[in-house]
């Protein structure tokens, strides 16, 4: 089968399209014919050996899929022909992938494969973040950085559906326009976000900050929190991992909370199935698609995330001929 492989960790454009052996499903794995695979920032990091999980070279890039079951172990409720999604960590940019059975969910008939491929990583991370880690309550205000990206758009759509007010932070007017098209009217530019957020909330601040960006905006994010507010640490697309002076937490009765969805699920194998069952009834929205790429351009798809040019999500179609 054809697959997009990392053979040297020189970044997304070092991806090679190669003919490789089809995976063989182990006793706890589902063999899935991949129709669509989501590209995510962790793929950028893995292509440069900068992610917390460091697969041995060579490896097939891509961490989430939507597709059709070819083989499944008994007792999990999956049969050949079922439409499913899965979180795979690697292996998704290929015609077929073997996914751990506890990280597979049935895809509702109303959701197409491309939309399905956008869901597992970002939407389950943000459900874990907002609900389990953030304790989001209806009527609270959520501030989200990198709002036009994959995690950002998942935050907007989920927080809105959970009854929150959302304020978005983006770097350009084009991204602001895009975020407004998702129904998030309150958008501020990153350069001036603290004062703008405090003005929008009449000085009260927000209940939750979702931060997938890190870097130098972290302290101003803490300054945007209302008393009992929570800052959710999701990632560091800006490159720098911020540090926190804990007196700020004491003085304002605020929390900084880490969110590691993969780490949580590794210790709680039952979590994916429960989280997927909670997400499906909320799917009154469609994840915003920037564009799809054929397998030959998988490296370009991932590079577009690093280049900060994506509005929403990019998806690789491993079975589409370019
Ligand atoms: N903790 C978890 O469990 C978990 C799960 C999934 C993903 N993540 C992490 O979440 C982060 C976001 O992932 P994603 O897939 O949503 O990424 P994405 O779609 O590429 O979006 C990231 C956003 O970050 C902003 N950004 C700021 N500085 C940037 C830079 N130097 N390079 C690129 N983007 C920059 C961009 O928005 P502006 O241009 O508007 O600033 C961009 O829209 C990553 O760090 C990823 O590893 C964490």
Short description:
The protein folds into 2 domains: 2-119 and 287-317, Quinone Oxidoreductase, Chain A, domain 1; 122-263, 3-Layer(aba) Sandwich (Rossmann fold).
Q: What's the count of strands?
A: 16
Spans of 5+ residues with little confidence (pLDDT < 50)? Answer: none
Number of domains: 2
Which outline best applies? globular
Per DSSP, the total helix count is 11
Helix content: 25-40%
Describe the structure.
The protein is an alpha/beta fold and 322 residues long. It has 2 domains: 2-119 and 287-317, Alpha-Beta Complex (Quinone Oxidoreductase, Chain A, domain 1); 122-263, 3-Layer(aba) Sandwich (Rossmann fold), CATH 3.40.50.720. It is 29% helix and 27% strand. The chain has helices spanning 41-47, 113-117, 120-133, 150-161, 173-181, 193-200, 218-223, 247-252, 261-267, 271-279, 298-306, and strands at residues 2-6, 15-19, 29-39, 59-60, 64-71, 83-87, 96-100, 104-106, 141-144, 165-170, 186-189, 206-211, 225-233, 255-258, 289-294, 313-317. Strands 3, 5, 6, 7, 8, 15 and 16 form a 7-stranded mixed sheet that branches. Strand 1 (2-6) and strand 2 form a beta hairpin. Helix 3 (120-133) packs across helix 4 (150-161) and helix 3 (120-133) packs across helix 10. The longest helix is centred in the middle third of the chain and has 14 residues, at 120-133. The protein is globular and about 60 Å long. 50% of the residues are buried. The mean pLDDT is 97. The structure holds NADP nicotinamide-adenine-dinucleotide phosphate. NADP nicotinamide-adenine-dinucleotide phosphate binds at residues 40-42, 121, 125, 146, 148-152, 170-171, 175, 190, 212-213, 234-239, 259-262, 305, 308, 310.
